[in-house]
Specification:
Layout: H1 6-27, E1 41-49, E2 54-64, E3 70-77, E4 83-90, E5 96-100, E6 105-107, E7 112-115, E8 121-127, E9 136-143, E10 148-156, H2 159-175
Parallel strand pairs: 1-10
Antiparallel strand pairs: 1-2, 2-7, 2-8, 3-6, 3-9, 4-5, 4-8, 9-10
The chain binds copper (II) ion.
Copper (II) ion binds next to strand 8.
Amino acid sequence: MTLRTPRPLRLGALIAVSALALTACAGTPAPAPASAQADAFSSSDVWVKAADEGMSAGFGTLANTGDTDLTVVSATDDATSSMQLHETMQNESGQMVMREIEGGFVIPAGGSLELAPGGNHLMFMDVTTPLRAGDETTITLTFADDSTARIVAPIKEFSGANETYEGDMGDMDMGQ
Ligand SMILES: [Cu+2]
């Protein structure tokens, strides 16, 4: 009898210690990180057009779960020596031309921005590592506050965009 009684006591002591540890943990003041733009970002169905060299483009949906607008100011991908954020506009002679968008891609608060052939897109300016259909490539977006988000995008054959971009590329070279 004398041997048994200490047991529940010890258990009780252990429980008390754990409770204290938990309290201490929860109460520890964590450094409050400024809410980064990248935290509110998500993407879906992002894909990149297959290309061995030259130009290519990335498309998909960029979404913003936050309550303020998100701005993508730049993008990179190891497969291209440079990347631009492009919009497609009709020029004075009625031709559709693409050009670097001023002010970056703005993803509205609680909304999304569609990147699609013939519209806004991530422009691979000079593919240095072949983008092969079936592979994946990693795009890094940088937001206005310097936070970043990575998108792993599948590479797909897309002949339609090829036709569109051949004409656009000529216009862009001339506009340079
Ligand atoms: Cu473009």
